[in-house]
Design goal:
With 404 residues, this protein is an all-alpha fold. 65% of the residues lie in helices and 0% in strands. The protein is elongated and about 80 Å long.
Length: 404
């Protein structure tokens, strides 16, 4: 506790009565009387102890603040600090308790300002240095990957907030912390869901969050806005980082901001024209034999015979699955089921056939490039651009989602 030692040195004993004030006034009037007055003052102060702490700025103890953020009660925090030992080994328990309680009261009063972080620097009640303000905001908006994963697919309403006990039990995160994170996601979601411009940038500006944390919230907000299916049992093996990478790829390549820039476009709005144009990829179904031949030529030198034969035997199934997923993405329901479709039609068959992650990456990169190298008629030149943009996301999603 970095402040405890400093606080101990600032505690003084004062007796507050008329005679003490008179003695102090006499002390101020003449330096020559100082030596005779000091013993008198000390004698008067001997019978009364009053703890006084004077400060012109708010002290933030990172260790105690982290315990508060993680949802530990005041009593639990005191117990943990006493068990830690170190500086606390020689400090009376009641003094530790008094200090922790004081910190907890301060953080509780600061919480209303943390709901709108820009207000933290504007409010006149607490004098906080910029470094401590950043610490307060970043820790308060910290987001546990396990909790964020459980929030995917849930409506951010009062009913689900009451049911966070299950999330706490499953993740091992304290209930109070789960509620804090739920409320933060809901607050950020409401603030930026219809705000024009880059999603992560809007979050960073409105809530003064560091870039990495803003990106995490952007992925959560994006998946919530588009209502992607993430809760089905067959998707439970996927973790937050898997969905985070998929969300980042989707925002980058399939939203309007891919081809347009400026404040008029949203990261949370899919490029509907692009999704409609993807139906043209159906043309590639007629080129299956050519693509299979090109893929086989590239993969044969790099794969073991058994793996190569598996690709040869099941190429049609994999190829058609990738094409048909693209052709149906213009339908809202099919888009929401993207992760389910990729799992059922590609990932599960690959797992059954014992594919490795390296094999998945090699196969997808090879297929992507073979289609780009294919000769197509002049009236179908757009297919290359559509295919490339489509596969930028599919490659990322399949590689992240494949857990052999």
């Amino acid at each position: 506790m970095r402040t405890l030692r400093g606080r101990l040195s600032q505690r003084i004993k004062i007796k507050t009565n008329a005679s003490s004030r008179a003695a102090l006034q006499s002390h101020k009037t003449g330096r020559s009387k100082r030596s005779s007055i000091i013993p008198e003052i000390q004698a008067m102060f001997a019978d009364v102890d009053v703890d006084v702490f004077i400060s012109n700025y708010t002290i933030i103890d990172p260790e105690i603040y982290q315990l508060w953020v993680e949802g530990y009660t005041f009593v639990e925090a005191v117990t943990l600090l006493k068990q830690k030992g170190g500086l606390f080994a020689d400090v009376p328990p009641e003094l530790i308790a008094s200090d922790v309680q004081d910190h907890y009261r301060t953080y509780a009063m600061l919480e209303k300002f943390l709901h709108a972080p820009p207000k933290l620097s504007e409010q006149p009640t607490f004098q906080i240095c910029p470094q401590d303000r950043s610490l307060l905001i970043e820790h308060y908006y910290s987001l546990d990957d396990a909790v964020a994963r459980e929030l995917f697919g849930k409506k951010l309403n009062a009913r689900n907030r009451k049911d966070l006990d299950e999330v706490a039990d499953k993740t091992g995160v304290r209930l109070k912390s789960c509620r804090r994170q739920f409320d933060n996601v809901k607050r950020i979601y409401k603030a930026v869901e219809e705000t024009q411009g880059n999603l992560a940038c809007n979050i960073r500006q409105q809530f003064i969050l560091p870039e990495e944390l803003a990106q995490k919230y952007a992925a959560v907000v994006f998946i919530a806005c588009l209502r992607f299916e993430t809760t089905k049992r067959k998707l439970q093996y996927l973790n937050f980082k898997d969905f985070y990478e998929c969300g980042q790829a989707l925002m980058t390549f399939w939203t309007y901001t891919y081809q347009h820039s400026g404040a008029d476009y949203l990261d949370t709005e899919m490029d509907k024209e692009f999704l409609l144009d993807l139906r043209e990829i159906r043309y590639l179904l007629d080129k299956e034999k050519e693509i299979k031949h090109l893929v086989s030529l590239r993969l044969k030198p790099t794969l073991l015979e058994r793996a190569y034969q598996e690709v040869e035997n099941n190429f049609r199934s994999y190829y058609r699955a990738i094409i048909m997923i693209a052709c149906n993405l213009h339908r809202t329901r099919e888009l929401r089921l993207l992760f389910v479709e990729l799992t059922e039609r590609l990932i599960e068959p690959w797992k059954q056939n014992g594919w490795t992650r390296e094999q998945v990456q090699m196969f997808m990169q090879c297929m992507t490039q073979c289609v780009l190298d294919l000769e197509v008629p002049r009236d179908n030149q757009d297919i290359r651009c559509l295919w490339d943009r489509y596969m930028q996301v599919i490659n990322v999603c399949l590689f992240r989602m494949y857990h052999p």
